[in-house]
Amino acid sequence: MILKKFYEEVQRAHSGRLAEWRTLYEKAAGVETKQAVLQADIAETLRRQKELRAQLADLVALASSLSATAKRADLSAEIPKVQETVGRMLRDLHMAAY
Length: 98
What we know:
Blueprint: H1 2-72, H2 79-97
């Protein structure tokens, strides 16, 4: 009888420990999943940032080209409009990055 009670106590303690280990394992798996999702988000953000930088470089080149063209064509009145358009595009691009 004492042996049976001892065996039951050992079983209860063992199942409690197994439940604890299972809970810890599930939490660790959840953390690994969240980490993988965050790493994918970071990779996507970096890719998008690279694209936005390329677009920004294109816009700067376009603004420079348009400004030079406007000056050559003696369209100095158009320069502020071009600058405003490029400025708006840069703001939109900046907002899209965040």
